[in-house]
């Protein structure tokens, strides 16, 4: 069974995190919401408090297939300020393991040099932070082992893209049908 870590920092964008968590859990992926705030409960950018499954310090990163960063302006700043998380992002990238980021969070990957030569997308206005990337306006970009997406409105696309990578395209299509998702009507 694949395993995904979704990081929660104060000010994270709730829908971006929870849509991916929900879709991936429905697909049978083991998903852990990991707090980087030092507390078990983390307040999102719209005052929705989410109880994390574990704290960063309790996490064994060798057990994960992918790390995911939700956006939110303040949430992204708080994620990027967490040195231990940045070390894990760098290690996953070096090892060719999957990294996913949505909204403002792809800027973190840009600042770390991870997007050079890759197609990537982000929340409008953050494009200059995608250093070295071929920036697109697509809902999701998968470039080798890096997945990026634009924001709350693309959160389902993002969750399905993660599920497709970790469970296969057939499971992704099945899940899109199960949740009555049709991008053409969005």
Question: How would you portray this structure in words?
Answer:
The chain is of the alpha/beta class and 186 residues long. It is 33% helix and 22% strand. The strands form 3 sheets. A 7-stranded mixed sheet has the order 5-2-1-6-7-11-10, sandwiched between helices. A two-stranded antiparallel sheet has the order 3-4. Strand 10 and strand 11 form a beta hairpin. The termini are far apart. The mean pLDDT is 97.
Describe this structure in a few short sentences.
With 186 residues, the chain is α/β, with parallel strands linked by helices.
Q: Tell me about the biggest sheet?
A: 7 strands, mixed
Number of domains: 1
Helical percentage: 25-40%
Instruction: Classify the secondary structure makeup into a structural class.
Output: alpha/beta
Classified by CATH, the class is Alpha Beta
Name the beta content range. 15-25%
Rg of Cα set: 15 Å
> What value does the average pLDDT take?
97
What are the main properties of this structure?
22% strand, Rossmann fold, two-stranded antiparallel ribbon, 6 helices, globular, 11 strands, 186 residues, seven-stranded mixed beta sheet, alpha/beta
